[in-house]
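Problem: given the chain below (151 residues), write out its structure.
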Amino acid sequence: MLLKSPNAINYLMDLVGLAAKWYRDDPHYFRSALGVILGINDDSVRFAYEKPRINVWRAAADRAISEEILRSTTDSGALAVLLARLFNGVWVEWVADHISIDRAEQELRYGMSVALLAHAAPKAKARLEKLLTETERDLTLVRRLSMEAAR
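Solution.
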């Protein structure tokens, strides 16, 4: 595991924070690299880029299943692909300079919360609903602040 998070929910959210930290620390590199990678139409190159990311999300989903945060019937592979697509979509907006890194991070946390809640195990449902409410509130605040800054 990349991080020493106390549980699977924290681990998934910590992955979002780690990616945002890397992108925040070196935005020129990541904007350039992602711009090139996302513009490539060669499936073998895109697969080489996407496979490690999907594997990280799958391992995180498997951990959440083993900790009974997600239902045992959750397809961790399908969820991993969804999370990777979520990440790619948000980072495309950031690469294009349509959203700030702070907004990208909050959108990822919110999308992650929605995806996890859809697969919540009964014992974790209330916790994931609370997380969704918190991430939605944070996203609304970031959106309002960025709209005010644009005026």
